[in-house]
Amino acid sequence: MSSKTTKIAVWIVSVLLALEYAFAGITKLIGKEEAVEGFRHAGFSDGFRLFIGAAETAGAIGLLVPRLRFWAALGLSIIMTGALVTHVRAHDTVAKMAPAAISLMLLILTAWTTRPRRAA
Length: 120
Prior knowledge:
By secondary structure, the protein is mainly α. It is built from five helices and no strands. 82% of the residues lie in helices and 0% in strands. The longest helix has 28 residues, at 3-30.
């Protein structure tokens, strides 16, 4: 894949992920019933829900800023790893885990392609 094609692909994936995490973060911050119940079901506090909502919203913004994209993808990858662990511990179905797993793979790919490189 050429450098230009890679840049376009990274931008497309970054925008789609940013939309996903902006939506997810805002629903947690405004206390949408589904988000509140999901965190309670997993045994997490409202404070933790708000923290994750703020982190996801900040990560969504960071994905759209090229200099922050690597760090945003890395931070969101940590959150999604925790989400997958939570799904496994709750014995959720594969169908419920799949979106988190797909997002995690896309975040890792984004982080890898935008990682800082040392000058030779």
